[in-house]
């Protein structure tokens, strides 16, 4: 067997495999024997068709089958011997047979050869969040809103009130449009943007008033129209008093006192923002490494991440993209993100290789013990068996390896903590 490897680019190679008759003839004979047992040709008994006739009828198909098998076999052998790291499946580009020689040409993508720049001088800022008493009370109020009661008010509508009204839609000439009347429509002003026409028109109004809302056309060619909104009720959310009985109810007996409930809310906030702090730091680290190491990225790897991002988006949207969203345009929009994922994977793999990082069974067992401590209902032995199973092992291995890679990086760079208040959201 002879081989010729040609670098087409930093991420592409071509491989020419040249096999002698001694190397490919046994496979040809094997395929002919298989065909002879099954082929039926008029005038010949099954299993007794002459070899020359089989070659005439099935020669091209047999040659193609043999080529595929030998290409796969020798590609694996050559990749291992030459330390080739394929980033895609090898594609059969061409082949040619004669009596003495079979020439196979394969093309494939490879992991690029590169060096990670020295990162010991890199510096990062990590946000450190401190949960205040005000943060806890704000979060409790958000929880209480889910158990509040809408009560009618006689005064003017405020920014967080709900208005119940009847609507009539009219054309630009003031004619009421048929089948465009809606009764008891609820406007929750809290969730309408401040510049929304209905928010602007309804704020400060009372039950019994009627207001006109003009809607301007959003696109050229569309017509303007108007809504007549007859306000029937203004309602305001009244929060329940936080006491021990309410705590038992909303936590389903998990907590029996307001103090315990507040402590749990604080703990959950601290855990959430501690995780956010860590994830933001890791994101800034990967972004920095991607910027500093413009690694040539195999398109096959980018395609793989693009497909993953597309499927994730579909799952979040109920299984499919909305009819109004063109999949090809969506792919274009997520392609840069897919390229970043692929580049970071190459960089992180290189760091793992340079530091000889690996994941052992003991690492997986330690990870299972750590996860079990977070939830008393989980048993360590059960988690260990799950994580070591064929179904979960690769995922857990990748997770642990990622932690080790970031651990190596964080031990080599400078990380400065910066105190930050919790980001506030509307109550």
From TrEMBL:
Tagged with keyword Isomerase: yes
Superkingdom classification of source: Bacteria
Class of the enzyme per the UniProt entry, highest EC level: isomerase
Pfam short name (any one): Trigger_C
Listed GO biological process terms: cell division; protein folding; protein transport
Localization annotation: Cytoplasm
EC number annotated for this UniProt entry: 5.2.1.8
Catalytic activity: [protein]-peptidylproline (omega=180) = [protein]-peptidylproline (omega=0)
Chief localisation class: cytoplasm
The UniProt record lists the keyword Amino-acid biosynthesis: no
GO MF: peptidyl-prolyl cis-trans isomerase activity
Chain ranges of the Trigger factor ribosome-binding bacterial domain: 1-141
Family to which the UniProt record says this protein belongs: Belongs to the FKBP-type PPIase family. Tig subfamily.
Domain notes: Consists of 3 domains; the N-terminus binds the ribosome, the middle domain has PPIase activity, while the C-terminus has intrinsic chaperone activity on its own.
Protein name as annotated: Trigger factor
Organism: Prosthecochloris marina
Gene: tig
């Amino acid at each position: 067997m002879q081989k010729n490897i040609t670098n087409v680019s930093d991420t592409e190679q071509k491989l020419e495999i040249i096999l002698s008759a001694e190397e490919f003839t046994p496979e040809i004979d094997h395929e002919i024997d298989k065909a002879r047992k099954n082929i039926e040709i008029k005038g010949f008994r099954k299993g007794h068709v002459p070899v020359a006739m089989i070659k005439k009828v099935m020669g091209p198909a047999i040659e193609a089958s043999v080529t595929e098998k030998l290409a796969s076999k020798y590609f694996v052998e050559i990749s291992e011997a030459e330390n080739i790291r394929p980033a895609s499946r090898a594609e059969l580009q061409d082949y040619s047979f004669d009596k003495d020689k079979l020439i196979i040409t394969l093309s494939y993508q490879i992991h690029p050869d590169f060096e990670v720049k020295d990162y010991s001088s890199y510096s990062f800022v990590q946000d450190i969040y401190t949960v205040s008493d005000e943060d806890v009370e704000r979060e409790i109020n958000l929880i209480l809103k889910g158990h509040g009661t809408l009560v009618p008010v006689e005064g003017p509508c405020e920014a967080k009130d709900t208005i119940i009204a009847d609507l009539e839609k009219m054309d630009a000439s003031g004619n009421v449009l048929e089948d465009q009347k809606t009764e008891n429509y609820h406007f929750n002003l809290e969730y309408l943007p401040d510049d929304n026409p209905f928010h602007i028109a309804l704020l400060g109004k009372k039950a019994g008033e009627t207001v006109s809302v003009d809607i301007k056309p959003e696109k050229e060619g569309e017509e303007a129209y108007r809504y007549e909104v007859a306000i029937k009720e203004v309602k305001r959310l009244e929060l329940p008093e936080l006491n021990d009985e309410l705590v038992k109810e909303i936590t389903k007996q998990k907590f029996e006192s307001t103090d315990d409930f507040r402590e749990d809310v604080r703990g959950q906030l601290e855990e959430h923002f501690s995780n956010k702090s860590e994830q933001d730091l890791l994101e800034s680290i990967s972004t920095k490494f991607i910027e500093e190491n413009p690694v040539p990225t195999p398109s096959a790897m980018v395609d793989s991440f693009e497909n993953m991002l597309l499927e994730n988006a579909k799952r979040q949207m109920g299984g499919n993209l909305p009819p109004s969203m063109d999949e090809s345009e969506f792919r274009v929009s997520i392609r840069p993100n897919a390229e970043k994922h692929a580049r970071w994977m190459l960089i992180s793999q290189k760091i793992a290789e340079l530091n000889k990082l690996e994941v052992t069974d003991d690492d997986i067992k330690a990870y299972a013990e750590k996860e079990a401590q977070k939830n008393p209902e989980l048993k360590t032995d059960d988690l260990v068996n799950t994580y070591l199973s064929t179904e979960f092992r690769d995922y857990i291995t990748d997770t642990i390896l990622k932690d080790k890679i970031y651990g190596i990086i964080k031990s080599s760079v400078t990380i400065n903590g910066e105190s930050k208040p919790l980001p506030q959201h509307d109550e």
